[in-house]
């Protein structure tokens, strides 16, 4: 080719090359706006096809030739049904060699940086994975399908320089793990993982770990940690994933107080634990164990030795050998445990155990170490309670118990047999089946201390009970289920003592089935009595069926001194025999039934007692025959015959309505003074009486309002120091008041006829007499010269009398007596006083020699033996024999003595008398009492012109005297006087 033509071709090629370069440069400079969308969509389609879900890229940046940056990468269509439930990254930057990437994507990568990663992954359990995989026969995968080889293959032998930052969340059915992740590749073959702010959530409880750094080294056939690291007190010494001919194997060596060696190969985990301290596990693991164990602060320092083999395919299987665990003095040993077909830890499908032994020398100490507290009252205070268990074999269907022992300082219980496990939920112990033989030696004092202390159990033994000694031997056979047990048992006391008394025999034979206790025989024979009983007792409805009892107590004083029967029981003495039958509901507390008296209680009983003493009162012989039908009590007969008297009654009572009907009763009391021990209101009363009557108390009525009809008779009653004979009282009481239509009695002063009504109050008996007729005997007052056979007293108005234990009061006394009228008030006891006024009393009724009308007033108050008060008396026209005169007396008394201000008696020639001054005496119920004289003397002067009748009264017969005079002076303690008689002759 000629030169010009070559030149033209070169110029053309140059222009084409320049155009191509220019176009290429333009296209590169315009790659974003022109081709960015096409490349982004192409990458989205490619990545979406690889991961199996749609992926979006917000934008693409970079040079494309050697680097590229993907912004806002998301997988928006993920749901809760996907294994990856959330995935996004704010920025993915990649540096690569384009031609090498086209040949080998990983070999061509120089650097990968992911920032703002946010991913959530869900892992199904093995069984769920098999059920949802859609692959027939998934439950029988071959060993070559193990994911360990996939994990190893997923980590390239020579990773590119990489850095990943973000958050990742892993979920299973029961667990959630979330953490911040930082992945680095410091050099070829090495990867470092930094996990920060690790949060583990299980059953709604969140557990945290601050940080974990993990370095991996990758060679052709293995991945291993670069150096040991620690998780709390757990040290991971080595961890390796190694390729094997059958797939891959994981080997891990750890230390947590002791050594832990783990190996995972062909879907099998093999673990060897040697003196491993569970309390030194990582905080997150400790908290998970605490949740599983139900403790407060994680597992206690338990040392564990064991060989564990765990195999999983579609379901799990486990084998555990040589388990030895110690917690303080408590220990657990398991020779071998096989678990197959584990679908759920709460429902183990198949398992077998050989050689389980457990020992806890102190159950309370073990509970404290596990983070629990046992109430102190549930365990003996004298020492520890030990628990021992020897179980040679167990399976999903049954547990063989060679020895089960509970031992306290003084008691022991042993059991052998089998325990059939529930067919469904293994934790539902109510459905387990029992076949156990139990023997127990129970110390009586230890059992009583539990039942009377702060144990939370019903307090059946009062804390004031006497010292209990001896033991109780129990043999029992247990069947059925814990929810519905069948138990046959025999219990026999051995050398049981209650204080100073001894139980000679105590034996119970019975059974429990379907919530009913059947007592075939109960016999108790002690120093203070004997009791036997049979019957059935329903625990659910609290009922008795076909029950009978018999009780003999030769010494009631010994029984009541125990205070075991009831702290409210009064002191008793004597003998007692009782027998009867019981049937029906017994829903009652210590007093009366909580829900009303049950309708189906039926009791028939007869009680015989001899020499019975209640609270010091001798009741003597007591016989009673009673029948209880629901709330209705029928007392066929009750007879009390003894030292207090005789009481006999029959009637009915409604216990729910608390009504009583005694159509007839009789009482004979030989001496009321004995009865006063029980009825304090009768204190100071003696004598005997007999009474008969009836009683009716309606529902809701107070006892003082009950209707009572009573007729009482007594030959002699002594009350307030006065003897009453031939006493008759008829009483009709209702609504708190008593009508007394008839009261008759012979008193030392005469016959009494009275009527009225009475009311019982807090201060005693308030008596209102509407009638009081007394015919006083003059001789009772020394009136031997009275012309009247009787001196009548008749009330003019109702009289109010209050009779209390320490006070007697008479108010409004107004009566016709001695032809005149007497009025007044009287109180004996506190605020004692007497106010009385007599008007126009006829003295002729007192003596044939006297005539005249007496008017007098008396007012006394204070000590009855030395009262203070005033006295005045006046007879304007006094006649004595044939002499006519007058009487006028006025006196006052206080603690210093008697002051006579006026004493004038004029009876003609018979007597002329006057007195003035002070006397050193005080007059009271006890007579005259001398007191120190503090005032002037008393002067008494008496003269008689015809003293014969007076001297004759002194016993000097045949005396004739013309006149006589007497003068008496009392000055201090000295008494001086003179007597002069003129013309004395006899």
Percent strand: over 45%
Structure class: mainly beta
Indicate the percent of residues in helices: 10-25%
Q: List low-pLDDT spans.
A: 125-146, 454-463, 587-595
Total number of strands: 56
Please tell me how large the radius of gyration is.
Answer: 57 Å
Number of helices: 11
Tell me, briefly, the overall form: elongated
Distance between the termini: 222 Å
**Mean pLDDT over the residues:** 78
Q: Largest sheet at a glance?
A: 54 strands, mixed
Supply the key terms.
11 helices; elongated; mainly beta; single chain; two-stranded antiparallel ribbon; 56 strands
Structure description:
The strands form 2 sheets. The protein has a 54-stranded mixed β-sheet that branches. It is 11% helix and 58% strand. It is built from 11 helices and 56 strands. A hairpin with a 2-residue loop joins β32 and β33. By secondary structure, the chain is mainly β.
């Amino acid at each position: 080719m000629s030169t010009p033509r070559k030149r033209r071709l070169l110029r053309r090629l140059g222009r084409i090359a320049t155009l191509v370069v220019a176009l290429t440069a333009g296209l590169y400079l315009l790659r974003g706006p022109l081709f960015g969308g096409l490349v982004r969509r192409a990458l989205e389609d490619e990545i979406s096809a690889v991961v199996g879900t749609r992926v979006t890229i917000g934008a693409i940046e970079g040079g494309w030739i050697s680097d590229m940056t993907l912004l806002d990468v998301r997988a928006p269509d993920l749901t809760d049904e996907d294994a990856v439930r959330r995935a996004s990254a704010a920025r993915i930057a990649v540096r690569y060699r384009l031609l090498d990437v086209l040949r080998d994507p990983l070999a061509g990568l120089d650097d990968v940086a992911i920032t703002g990663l946010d991913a959530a992954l869900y892992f199904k359990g093995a069984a769920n994975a098999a059920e949802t995989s859609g692959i027939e026969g998934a439950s029988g995968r071959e060993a070559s399908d193990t994911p360990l080889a996939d994990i190893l293959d997923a980590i390239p032998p020579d990773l590119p320089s990489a850095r990943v930052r973000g958050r990742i969340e892993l979920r299973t059915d029961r667990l959630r793990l979330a953490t911040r992740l930082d992945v680095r590749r410091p050099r070829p073959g090495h990867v470092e993982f930094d996990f920060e702010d690790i949060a583990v959530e299980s059953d709604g409880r969140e557990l945290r770990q601050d940080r974990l750094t993990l370095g991996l080294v990758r060679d052709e056939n293995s991945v291993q940690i670069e150096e040991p690291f620690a998780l709390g007190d757990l040290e991971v010494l080595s961890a390796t994933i190694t390729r094997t001919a059958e797939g891959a194997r994981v080997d891990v060596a750890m230390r947590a107080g002791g050594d832990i060696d783990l190996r995972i190969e062909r879907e099998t985990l093999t673990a060897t634990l040697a003196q491993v301290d569970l309390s030194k596990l990582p905080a997150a693991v400790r908290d998970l164990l605490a949740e599983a164990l139900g403790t407060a602060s994680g597992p206690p320092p338990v040392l564990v030795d064991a060989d564990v083999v765990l195999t999983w395919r579609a379901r799990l299987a486990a084998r555990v050998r040589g388990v030895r665990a110690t917690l303080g003095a408590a220990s657990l040993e398991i020779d071998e445990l096989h678990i197959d077909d584990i679908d759920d830890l709460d429902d183990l499908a198949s398992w077998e155990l050989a050689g389980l032994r457990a020992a806890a020398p102190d159950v309370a100490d073990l509970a404290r170490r596990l983070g629990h507290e046992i109430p102190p009252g549930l365990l003996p205070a004298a020492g520890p309670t030990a628990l021992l268990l020897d179980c040679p074999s167990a399976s999903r269907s049954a547990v063989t118990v060679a020895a089960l022992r509970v031992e306290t300082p003084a008691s022991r219980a042993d059991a052998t047999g089998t325990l059939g496990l529930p067919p469904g939920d293994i934790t539902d112990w109510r459905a387990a089946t029992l076949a156990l033989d139990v023997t127990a030696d129970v110390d009586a004092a230890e059992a009583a201390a539990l039942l009377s202390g702060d144990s939370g159990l019903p307090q059946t033994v009062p804390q004031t009970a006497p010292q209990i000694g001896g033991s109780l031997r129990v043999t029992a056979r247990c069947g059925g289920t814990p929810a519905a047990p069948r138990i046959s048992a025999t219990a026999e006391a051995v050398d049981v003592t209650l204080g100073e008394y001894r139980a000679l025999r105590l034996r119970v034979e019975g059974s429990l089935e379907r919530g009913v206790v059947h007592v075939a025989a109960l016999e108790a024979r002690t120093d203070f009595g004997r009791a036997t009983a049979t019957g059935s007792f329903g625990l659910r409805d609290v009922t008795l069926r076909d029950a009978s009892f018999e009780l003999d107590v030769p010494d009631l004083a010994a029984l009541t001194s125990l205070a075991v029967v009831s702290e409210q029981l009064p002191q008793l003495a004597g003998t007692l025999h009782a027998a009867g039958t019981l049937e029906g509901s017994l829903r009652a507390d210590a007093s009366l039934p909580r829900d009303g008296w049950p309708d189906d209680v039926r009791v028939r009983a007869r009680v015989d007692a001899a020499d019975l003493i209640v609270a010091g009162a001798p009741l003597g012989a007591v016989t009673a025959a009673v029948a209880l039908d629901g709330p209705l009590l029928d007392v066929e007969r009750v007879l009390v015959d003894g030292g207090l008297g005789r009481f006999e009654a029959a009637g009915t009572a409604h216990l729910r309505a608390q009504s009583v009907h005694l159509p007839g009763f009789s009482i004979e009391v030989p001496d009321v003074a004995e009865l006063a021990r029980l009825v304090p209101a009768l204190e100071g009363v003696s004598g005997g009486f007999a009474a008969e009557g009836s009683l009716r108390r309606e529902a809701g009525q107070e006892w003082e309002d009950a209707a009572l009809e009573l007729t009482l008779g007594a030959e002699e009653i002594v009350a307030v120091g006065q003897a009453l004979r031939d006493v008759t009282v008829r009483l009709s009481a209702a609504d708190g008041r008593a009508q007394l239509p008839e009261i008759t009695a012979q008193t030392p002063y005469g016959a009494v006829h009275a009527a009225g009504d009475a009311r019982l109050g807090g201060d005693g008996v308030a008596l209102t007499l509407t009638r009081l007729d007394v015919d006083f005997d003059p001789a009772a007052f020394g009136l031997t010269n009275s012309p009247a056979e009787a001196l009548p007293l008749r009330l003019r108005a109702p009289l109010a009398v209050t009779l209390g234990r320490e006070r007697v009061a008479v108010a409004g006394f107004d009566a016709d007596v001695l032809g005149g009228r007497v009025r007044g008030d009287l109180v004996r006891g506190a605020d004692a006083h007497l106010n009385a006024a007599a008007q126009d009393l006829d003295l002729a009724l007192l003596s044939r020699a006297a005539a005249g009308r007496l008017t007098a007033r008396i007012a006394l108050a204070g000590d009855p033996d030395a009262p203070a008060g005033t006295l005045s008396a006046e007879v304007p026209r006094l006649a004595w024999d044939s002499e006519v005169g007058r009487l006028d007396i006025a006196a006052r008394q206080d603690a210093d003595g008697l002051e006579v201000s006026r004493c004038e008696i004029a009876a003609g020639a018979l007597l002329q008398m006057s007195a003035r001054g002070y006397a050193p005496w005080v007059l009271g119920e006890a007579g005259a009492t001398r007191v120190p004289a503090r005032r002037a003397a008393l002067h008494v002067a008496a003269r008689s012109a015809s003293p014969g009748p007076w001297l004759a009264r002194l016993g000097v017969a045949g005396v004739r005297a013309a006149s006589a005079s007497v003068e008496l002076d009392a000055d201090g303690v000295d008494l001086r006087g003179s007597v002069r008689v003129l013309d004395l002759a006899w």
